[in-house]
Design goal:
- By secondary structure, this protein is mainly beta.
- It has 1 helix and 20 strands.
- The strands form 5 sheets. Strands 16-15-19-12-13-18-17 form a 7-stranded antiparallel beta sheet, with no helix packed on it.
- 28% of the residues are buried.
- The model has no long low-confidence stretch (mean pLDDT 90).
Length: 285
C-alpha cells in the first residue's frame, strides 16, 4: 500500500502502556530528571530506518522519538537507546495506576504527515504518534515481517542484561491486567445463590488482584456453554454478564430460564460438559 497521512491504519504502532507509578520517581519535569535506557532485539524482512517513541507527561503531550536502522534483513540485532530525562513539560508525581508512559514502535511511513517529527533524541511538546519522517513503510511490501523481543526499559544510561523472570512471576504480572478463567470439563467458576426464576448471582474470585476493577468481561458467546448447578444442572439460556466488581472479585449473573431451583438457594456455576466456556476480565490501561 502507498503511504497517505489520511490512512487510519497507518497511524498504528505496536506499543506498551506503563502505569503512572512506574515514573513517579524519575524526577521528570524538574532539573533533576533522570535518564532511562531502552534495549530490545528486533528483526525485519525490510531494511532501513525505523523509529520508536516514548510518550508521557500530563495530557500525554511530551514525546521522545528516536531512530534505529535495520541493516540486514531477517537478522536479529540488539538496539540500545538512552532516553534523557525530561526537564521540561509537566509531570504530575503520583503512585496511582493510571497511564503514565507509553512506548511505541512505529511500522508505517506517513512522510511528513500528521504526527511525524524530524526532531529526534530529545523531548518535544506534542504527540508525535507517527514517529520519524525518515521511517520506512512496512506496509508497502506484501508479506513483510517485523519482530521484537527482550524489551527492557530501565533507569540509568547503561543497558543491563535482560531480566528473565520466573514464569510464575511473569504470569502474576499479566493477571494484573487480564484474566481468563476457564470452566472447562465441568470445573467451577464460583458459588452464589439463586436470584429469581431465571438467574443466579455468582461470586467469582480473581486469580490475582487486578490493577483496577475490570471494566469488561468476555465470554464464549454461547449460552449453552454455561450452567448453574445445585443437585442437578440447569443449562444456560443467555451468556453470563458482569455485575458488581472490585480488584479482587466480581459478581457475575448466570442465566437459566426455568432452572427449577428455589430463590435464595446456594448454587455454583460451571461450564457445560465441554471446554468452550470461559470468563475473561480486563483492566488494561
Amino acid at each position: 500500500s502507498s503511504s497517505a497521512a489520511s490512512d487510519v491504519y497507518k497511524r498504528q504502532a505496536i506499543g506498551q502502556r506503563l502505569e503512572r507509578n512506574a515514573a513517579a520517581n524519575f524526577g521528570w519535569g524538574t532539573s533533576n530528571a533522570q535518564s532511562l535506557t531502552l534495549s530490545f532485539y528486533v528483526r525485519s524482512s525490510k531494511t532501513g530506518i525505523f523509529s520508536a517513541y516514548l510518550i508521557g507527561g500530563d495530557g500525554f503531550n511530551r514525546t521522545f522519538t528516536f531512530e534505529y536502522t535495520i541493516a540486514s534483513a531477517n537478522t536479529w540485532q540488539k538496539v540500545e537507546q538512552t532516553i534523557t530525562g525530561d526537564t521540561g513539560g509537566s509531570w504530575t508525581y503520583s503512585t496511582d495506576n493510571s497511564i503514565g508512559l507509553g512506548l511505541n514502535f512505529v511500522l508505517e511511513n506517513l512522510g511528513s504527515g500528521a504526527g511525524t517529527t524530524s526532531s529526534l533524541n530529545s523531548w518535544q511538546a506534542g504527540n508525535n504518534y507517527a514517529g520519524s519522517t525518515n521511517q520506512v513503510n512496512l506496509f508497502d511490501t506484501n508479506g513483510a515481517t517485523w519482530y521484537v523481543a527482550g524489551v527492557q526499559l530501565e533507569r540509568g544510561s547503561v543497558a543491563t542484561q535482560f531480566e528473565h523472570r520466573k514464569e510464575s512471576d511473569e504470569l502474576a504480572q499479566c493477571h494484573r491486567y487480564y484474566q481468563k478463567i476457564h470452566g472447562s470439563s465441568l470445573s467451577y467458576f464460583g458459588v452464589g445463590n439463586v436470584d429469581g426464576a431465571t438467574m443466579a448471582q455468582i461470586l467469582v474470585n480473581f486469580i490475582t488482584e487486578m490493577r483496577s476493577a475490570p471494566g469488561a468481561m468476555e465470554t464464549s458467546g454461547t449460552a449453552s456453554d454455561y450452567s448453574i448447578r445445585m443437585n442437578s444442572n440447569a443449562t444456560g439460556t443467555s451468556v453470563p454478564v458482569l455485575s458488581n466488581r472490585t480488584t479482587k472479585n466480581a459478581m457475575v449473573i448466570f442465566y437459566a430460564s426455568g432452572h427449577g431451583f428455589t430463590n435464595g438457594q446456594a448454587v455454583f456455576a460451571r461450564a457445560a460438559n465441554n471446554t468452550n466456556g470461559f470468563l475473561g476480565f480486563s483492566s488494561e490501561l
